[in-house]
Design goal:
Chain lengths: ~375, ~260
């Protein structure tokens, strides 16, 4: 079980990257599936050729960052949709990764690695390795917290949250996207380099489906620790990654599930996490358990692909117009009407939704309806 | 301060949908001018603001701001000098970011954003001071997310964010149209206050004739892409809504119900 926690902490590095693109930049970036392998492959090749494992790990990070840069280039310069741009990079990188690695698999058994000291003393999969990896994950989490609190980090957040607003304050969204994508995929590359050394091999298919693992970690973690404070949100991502590995670990303990079932278990976990995080009742229940300070910090449902033309977007705007057209008679009833019609859809976070957030105290809206 | 010379813009030229949104606009604003713009639907009011802000580039004509030709400057680069408040209260703020984070974005308007902390003690103190000027109690809610604020509060915050870095030009695009009368009134009061305090040069588009008369020191009336009437401070002080309606009638302008009902 401690080995599962080890893995969870290593994959938390990737999950932090996924959090940065999906949650902060609002960019559906699937590149991580491939940039994980790019980072792992680069590090493995360098280690086999006798380069210091620490240098090789840094090289893995940089290789991942370059992969993220390609996706950013396709999106920003070639104006390709985020999802498509990242799928294109992912597809192309498969061949590049094979070129880098020179074959589909590079064994690293008995090679020097950043874990050499630990494995020599048989400390892998013990409290010591867990503590060291937890320290690494927490340092990266704190670095991400700090980055997001800087002027530039805030510009990245604004780019994801309201692009028009960011532009009106002179934020160069091309640059913020480039940096965020390079950082996120650099983290994925670092994760790949660490995982290759931890597991003793780099494999061309090692990154397949990792985007879902990252998403599952983000969703699980945010459901557990909320999103009210950035410190807890990113901590939740690390916790979520460990929780995910533990779920897999215990699932594989059941008699009829085998190691080959891991992908389907992953998919089911993500589906459950998505459904649960969107269910109002469950969110209220979690809120009542006292894990959250207020309703404000309930996790937002994950919209995987941001799309202004989705039915959600139109519901959003019509509901808004209906409530804000005027304050004359009927405004209050219109508000309730849109609210109930909205309830049947239940997509965005109630607290941050303009219509619901605008709802006034009852006395006030009654007074307004009279006037 | 701001000079427009022969600015024209035609949408969808050469198609059945061809529409001349601006035709030969000449306009000069002196420093400290607060000009209100009123006009029928499709008169080109919003296009005029978009052309000045750089969202749309004009077909012909030149735009100068503070003695500098800005035709060729991109929208984000113009943002250093030009601030904007939009009609939609959601447009001017980032909903998932806190009030102080939004203000930090506004504070670094047009600057190179580096790796200094966006919200530090000095800045927080300044934000608190600026927010308390709004009189909405937002200074005690600086770590709350902006998405939790009402439309009126968000619009007041947008106005503060647009103005507190003293931009060369403030563009207000029907910024009270989406609010109920009570909140619209509050935001207008605030507009007057921030423009006076910062001695800002401002352009305000409105559908409401009474607001257009009450605010600012000059009034422009637009119709079909042209400025059909201009009232200076003296004429504006004397004019009433009925006078404006007569002027529109002369121009055969069909006014939207919203304009007539105020």
């Amino acid at each position: 079980m401690l080995a599962a926690i080890d893995q969870g902490l290593i994959y938390a590095v990737l999950a932090l990257g996924v959090f940065l693109t999906f949650r902060i930049l609002n960019f559906a970036d699937l590149t991580v599936d491939a940039s994980f392998t790019t980072g792992g492959g680069t590090a493995a090749v360098l280690i086999v050729n006798g380069v210091s494992p620490y240098v090789a790990t840094c090289a893995g990070l940089l290789a991942g960052a370059v992969a993220g840069g390609i996706t950013a280039f396709l999106h920003v310069v070639c104006r390709i949709d985020p999802l498509l741009a990242s799928i294109l990079t992912m597809l192309g990188l498969y061949s590049i990764n094979l070129r880098i690695m020179g074959g589909p698999n590079i064994p690293l058994l008995n090679r020097a690695s950043v874990f050499s000291q630990l494995s020599q003393q048989r400390l892998i999969g013990t409290g010591v390795s867990v503590a060291l990896l937890a320290l690494l994950a927490l340092l990266l989490k704190l670095a991400l917290d700090w980055f997001l609190a800087t002027d530039f980090g805030l510009a990245v957040m604004a780019t994801g949250d309201n692009p028009a607003m960011a532009a009106s304050f002179g934020v160069n969204s091309a640059f913020t996207k480039l940096v965020a994508l390079m950082l996120a995929n650099g983290l994925a590359g670092l994760c790949g380099a660490l995982m290759a050394q931890y597991s003793g091999f780099a494999d061309i298919g090692g990154g397949t489906g990792l985007i879902l693992v990252g998403l599952a970690s983000v969703i699980l973690g945010n459901a557990l620790l909320g999103t009210r404070y950035m410190f807890l949100t990113t901590l939740g991502v690390v916790v979520g990654s460990v929780a995910y590995r533990l779920v897999i670990f215990f699932a594989l303990k059941t008699p009829f599930l085998k190691a080959q079932d891991m992908k389907v278990i992953s998919a089911v976990i993500v589906v459950i996490a998505l459904v649960v995080s969107q269910s109002k009742r469950v969110r209220e229940l979690v809120g009542r358990l006292g894990l959250h300070r207020s309703r404000d910090d309930l996790p937002e449902p994950m919209t995987v692909v941001p799309n202004p033309f989705s039915p959600m977007a139109s519901i959003d705007s019509t509901a808004f117009v209906a409530t804000t057209v005027s304050g004359e008679g009927g405004a209050a009833s219109r508000q309730t009407a849109t609210r109930s019609s909205f309830d049947s859809v239940t997509l965005p976070d109630e607290q941050t939704h303009p219509v619901l957030a605008q709802a006034k105290p009852e006395g006030q809206s009654g007074k307004e309806a009279e006037s | 301060m701001l000079t427009l010379n022969g600015v024209s813009k035609t949408f969808f030229p050469g198609t059945v949908n061809e529409r001349q949104a601006l035709s030969g606009i000449d306009l000069t604003l002196d420093a400290g001018d607060f000009v209100t713009i009123i006009g029928s639907n499709g008169a080109g009011k919003s296009t005029l603001l978009n052309v000045i802000a750089g969202t749309i580039s004009p077909d012909v004509g030149s735009i100068q701001l503070a003695g500098q030709a800005i035709n060729k400057i991109s929208e984000p680069a113009r943002a250093r000098m030009i601030a904007r408040v939009f009609q939609d209260p959601q447009a001017g703020t980032a909903p998932h970011m806190t009030i102080e984070q939004n203000l930090a974005i506004a504070l670094t308007r047009g600057q190179l954003r580096g790796l200094r902390l966006g919200v530090n003690a000095t800045r927080r103190e300044r934000f608190r001071r600026e927010l308390s000027g709004l009189g909405l109690g937002l200074e005690d809610r600086m770590t709350h997310r902006v998405g939790l604020l009402s439309g009126g509060q968000r619009q007041a915050l947008s106005l503060l964010m647009a103005s507190f870095t003293a931009p060369s030009l403030l563009l207000l695009d029907e910024h009270t149209a989406a609010l109920d009368p009570e909140r619209a009134e509050a935001v207008l009061r605030l507009t007057k206050q921030v423009v006076a305090q910062g001695r800002l040069t401002a352009l305000m588009v409105t559908h409401n004739m009474e607001h257009a008369l009450r605010m600012g020191n000059r009034l422009l009336m637009m119709h079909e892409g042209r400025v059909i009437h201009q009232l200076d401070a003296a004429a504006k002080a004397k004019a009433r809504v009925s006078d404006l309606l007569d002027l529109f009638a002369e121009a055969n302008a069909v006014l939207a119900d919203r304009t007539l009902l105020g």
